[in-house]
Amino acid sequence: MEHQAEKSNGRHDSDHPVVSFLGPVSSYTHQTALQRFNDNEYGFEPASSITGVFEAVQSGAADFGVVPFENSTNGAVIFTLDLLADRQSMYADISVCDEAYLDVSHYLLGHKAAVTSSPEMSGASTPTSLIPSPLKPRSKPLSSIKHIKRIYTHPQAFGQCEIFLGAYLKGIERIDVSSTSKAAELVKEDKTGTSAAIASSLAAEIHGLDVLAKAIEDREDNTTRFFILRKGVDETAKHTGNPTKSLISFTVDHRSPGALADVLECFRNKKLNLTSINSRPTRIVPFQYIFFVEFEGSLRHDPDGRVKGALSDLEKYAQSWRLLGSWEDKLVR
Ligand SMILES: O=C(O)C(=O)C[C@]1(C(=O)O)C=C[C@@H](O)C=C1
């Protein structure tokens, strides 16, 4: 039976706008794309990297792009921040037009050991003076995983499963790959049966892998936030009356004391709540940064002019800045 998510559906006719996502199929980004865009109305195209999604949107090969932005357990997705930093002005037309949240539950996938014994290990770490009360993993292996010699996944997923990995797979080689679904693909290809992937239950179904452990994420509330990208701004979009958020990037003069505080003050003065702040190296001068600030509000619906006011004040303190987009706040509080 073909799974709905097995199709990247490859529709390219003008009737179907194309959505580019970090693939291959069954990645969490793919699942988010399917959740956000109706399968009958859109074509879905996997990209092999987050860069590929940005390129597809900037070139017009795709109408929309879906990229991970941050995870509630492990923080910012630096690949996406680096692309939004756009140091070489390669993605000048890209804007963030929406966000989507996905509950992320990771599975350990692989091939069951030829002789299946019980899962032996208790998962209880020995308390040490340094860690007197080690955290207990939320789940345990369903069968023995003693044969596992290497684990593949996306670096974000490793960071979300540290307790389980520390308890049951300590010291096992970790191999970073471009997505969790790529990891599942590689494990399927490894005929030695000694590789495992951290990926979704959907990836297990699609690649026909054995589930060695379920729900191995450190926290039950593990959630990833994704951005929806498009080229330019949809001037026809109607304001729904729901709360909005915006994202800007900026640089400041690093020799000027308080320059960053001055920029942040622009938002405080206009009573605009900040919802996230991140930074990445400029890669021009060591230890100088491009900052990202997300705030509640939108320039396109700004009845009391607070956003306009903050952005015009910011002109005085930022060396350079860019409004990366505004969208409807989708966080369920
Ligand atoms: O690897 C995937 O499946 C992805 O869609 C990427 C990604 C991420 O970069 O955060 C998405 C959700 C999870 O947080 C882990 C990985």
Automatic annotation (TrEMBL):
Pathway(s) served: Amino-acid biosynthesis; L-phenylalanine biosynthesis; phenylpyruvate from prephenate: step 1/1
Sorted UniProt keywords: Amino-acid biosynthesis, Aromatic amino acid biosynthesis, Lyase, Phenylalanine biosynthesis
Compositional bias of kind Polar residues: 118-128
Gene Ontology cellular-component terms listed: cytoplasm
Molecular function as annotated in GO: prephenate dehydratase activity
Keyword Transmembrane: no
Enzyme's top EC category: lyase
Sequence ranges assigned to domain Prephenate dehydratase in this UniProt record: 18-231
CDD domains: ACT_CM-PDT, PBP2_PDT_like
Ranges for domain ACT: 248-328
One Pfam family in the UniProt entry: PDT
PANTHER family assigned to the protein according to its UniProt record, in alphabetical order: PREPHENATE DEHYDRATASE P PROTEIN (PTHR21022), PREPHENATE DEHYDRATASE-RELATED (PTHR21022:SF19)
Protein name: prephenate dehydratase
